[in-house]
Amino acid sequence: MALVQFSSCNLFAGSRSSRHSSVAGHSYKFLQSTPHRQHYCNFLKEKSSLLSCHSSNDNGNEDYYLDAPVSAGDGFSFSGGKYSDEPSPADEWFNQGKIVKAHPVGGTGGKKAKDPIFGLAMGSGSQASSDLFRWFCIESGSNDNHPILLIHGFPSQAYSYRKFLPILSKRYHTVAFDWLGFGFSDKPQPKYGFDYTLDEYVSSLESVIEETTKGKVTLVVQGYFSPVVVKYASTHQEKITDLILLNPPITDKHANLPSTLSIFSNFLLGEIFSQDPLRASDKALTSCGPYQIKEDVAMVYRRPYLTSGSAGFALNAISRAMKKELKAYVEEMRKTLMDEKWRVKTTIFWGERDRWLSFDGVEDFCKESKHQLIKIPMAGHHVQEDCGEEVAQLIAQVVGQRSLSL
Length: 406
Prior knowledge:
Blueprint: E1 29-30, E2 39-44, E3 50-55, E4 76-77, H1 89-96, E5 98-104, E6 132-140, E7 147-151, H2 165-168, E8 173-177, H3 198-212, E9 217-222, H4 226-234, E10 240-246, H5 259-262, H6 269-273, H7 277-286, H8 295-307, H9 310-338, E11 345-351, H10 362-369, E12 372-376, H11 383-386, H12 388-405
Parallel strand pairs: 7-8, 7-9, 9-10, 10-11, 11-12
Antiparallel strand pairs: 1-4, 2-3, 5-6, 6-8
């Protein structure tokens, strides 16, 4: 299977490429004409030469900046993406899951979202629902078994747990979901129902847990969303049997985002880079450890950034929130896990080849807090990608030991 090789690319490249240009080579293609819909893109002088996309059978004169209804698309895609004739791994993954409605949409006064730079109308991908947000969830195993909720990190998707599902579902009801702003879940434009603050993620997590599980639950969370989950858990200890953290930012040195992620929060540059599928997905996955992403896997991670600009706008907003709030959240997480009132059995898995988060201080923290530490020597930051089957089996053992003691 071909591996992705990085090179610089320009989202707004205007050169035409062949219909079968490869993703690995970073070449773009324009959509081909179809009997039902013909797309074309042109630069509008009256809008500062902004790239706009139109469809010949649209009834109105709506312009789209980077974002458009699912039926229309952005006007360009990678080979093997949504608009390719080739089978899509992203479609196969999506078909295994379902949409769950949870967490109320914030008040927007019925206003339609516009892009934050030029004020152009956004497509459906950036519009919030009228009542509750739509979350993509995938579940496996009997509903009668103890539930395990798999919570992905930043930036990632529920897809990162695909290796966990067949192993954990043998004994547990296993559920994975995409956070708002990621994967196949809603990606509302910031200030139109959801602002992507960490406090909002805490409150929305409560809604998702209520909708997807019953009774007590085991929470598994990876990376930079760990402080969010711990804050939720601190006020819901009675509902949680186990808390399993995969390479969480646990020391003072972990309170700042690595440059690979912090760049998405930069003014203007971050807004540009967050629209680049290769930076937002491929590079974020491969720069933090030994992981080498395969082409069919990369196609799933890229999919949100290829079909709509809403994923990029969300990534930019989340990065800004993380940069502003992460330090305080990490400090609060440390205090919570060290508190003598903390009663939830906590286990920390650590991929020792993590290039983002140093192992220095992690072992000392676990000894002082008396939490179990399980080291994974050959894994990086995304342990579920590097050693998915091994980590899933270890998690099953950890949860199983707890079940036997109850």
